[in-house]
Amino acid sequence: MFRRMLVVTAIAVGLVAPMLSSPVMAHHSGAAYAQCEVTLRGTVTEYDWGNPHVVIVWNVKDDAGATASWSGELASVSSELADGMTKNSVKTGDDLIFTVKPAKSGSTTSLISTIKHADGSVLMGYSRRAAAGGQATPACSAKPGQPQS
């Protein structure tokens, strides 16, 4: 009887355990974003330290002086805390350099790969959300804000 109960329990655990991790596996993908990167320097206008993802919005000026508002997504608050960021790491008005994977559609939304201060010092050198941990990612061929391949 005990042996049968042990076998049933093992089978149940084997069937249930993968289901418990399904929400993580089923989380939305980065398929809407290009597998290339662009670097943008801008001034932070919003910093949303919240779940499901931390979001930063910043203004970028092009060569003609026109301003475009970009938004970038990071991982969850708990992931960012584990990577050393806090709710005070970024402030409205900060001049930062973002390396991002832009939206394929050409919209000014992105996944943030790295963030540097204006002096080049690293604020965030790895993004779990963009999966850019030291991997070489090619530069995008299209200009930022244009459809990417």
Q: Can you describe this structure in just a few lines?
A:
This protein is 20% helix and 30% strand. It is built from three helices and six strands; from the N terminus they run H-H-E-E-E-H-E-E-E.
Tell me what you see in this structure:
With 149 residues, the protein is of the alpha+beta class. It has a domain at 38-124: OB fold (Dihydrolipoamide Acetyltransferase, E2P), CATH 2.40.50. Helices cover 20% and strands 30% of the residues. The chain is built from three helices and six strands. It has helices at residues 2-20, 22-26, 77-82, and strands at residues 38-48, 55-61, 67-73, 95-102, 109-117, 122-124. Strands 1-2-3-5-4 form a five-stranded mixed barrel. Strand 2 (55-61) and strand 3 form a beta hairpin. It is globular.
Could you outline the blueprint of secondary structure elements for this entry?
Elements: H1 2-20, H2 22-26, E1 38-48, E2 55-61, E3 67-73, H3 77-82, E4 95-102, E5 109-117, E6 122-124
Parallel strand pairs: 3-5
Antiparallel strand pairs: 1-2, 1-4, 2-3, 4-5, 5-6
Give the overall shape: globular
Elements, N to C (H/E): HHEEEHEEE
Record the strand order, biggest sheet: 1-2-3-5-4
Report the uncertain regions.
Answer: 17-26
Query: How many β strands by DSSP?
Result: 6
Q: What amount of the residues lies in strands?
A: 25-35%
- Supply the CATH superfamily name of the domain at 38-124: Nucleic acid-binding proteins
Distance from first to last alpha carbon? 60 Å
Round the Cα radius of gyration to an integer and report it. Answer: 20 Å
CATH class of the domain at 38-124: Mainly Beta
Give the averaged pLDDT, no decimals.
82
**Annotation field: number of helices:** 3
Helix content: 10-25%
Largest sheet: 5 strands, mixed, barrel
Helix-and-strand structural type? alpha+beta
CATH architecture of the domain at 38-124: Beta Barrel
